[in-house]
Amino acid sequence: MIDEKGILFILSGPSGVGKGTVRKALFEQDTNLKYSISMTTRAMREGEQEGVDYFYRTREQFEQMISEKKMLEYAEYVGNYYGTPKQYVEEMIELGHDVFLEIEVQGALQVKENFPQGVFIFLIPPSLEELKNRIVDRGTETEDLIMNRLKEARNEIEMMDKYDYVVVNDNIDEAVRKVQAIVQSEHCKRERVAKQYKALLEVDDK
């Protein structure tokens, strides 16, 4: 029997495109998926748990991991570090779980440098007008901030060439079906199956 390893899938796209909504809907349908748990230097809040909500580390510990190249990506936000630890992702993949990382574009580009064997999926809105409507509907941002987000989104959409797949998020169910098809397709890729099958043949020869 082939000992099938998991795959790291990176779901990315402009702010407001619906990454979180698509990821949640996807997880409701597939129990083998693991959500990549982030690491942070911020204090644990009431009700949160180590290894469930975040991996909590001191600033010194986090900076040491950065220097030892143990982070797939990281950023500093409001005085605290946030990032994705490489070891957790590798352990889940080794156990045969597909790991999903939902992340902004700049973070995804860091992951591509540090873990190029990941599968990069770019989620885009049907149009910039639709993206503007979604951001406005949140009702949480000023007109200036909305315009800045749209300008940033335009720049980010130009980076789609760095991704393996592009999914238009026009309808949540349809977007989820397309991501599921990508997952199945990646597990059937010749180079991935051949590598695992050849390892099995080597065991049989012994």
UniProtKB/TrEMBL annotation:
It is found in: Cytoplasm. Keywords: ATP-binding, Cytoplasm, Kinase, Nucleotide-binding, Transferase. SUPFAM superfamilies: P-loop containing nucleoside triphosphate hydrolases. It comes from the Bacteria. Its EC number is 2.7.4.8. Residues 6-184 form the Guanylate kinase-like domain. This is Guanylate kinase. It comes from Gracilibacillus kekensis. The gene is gmk.
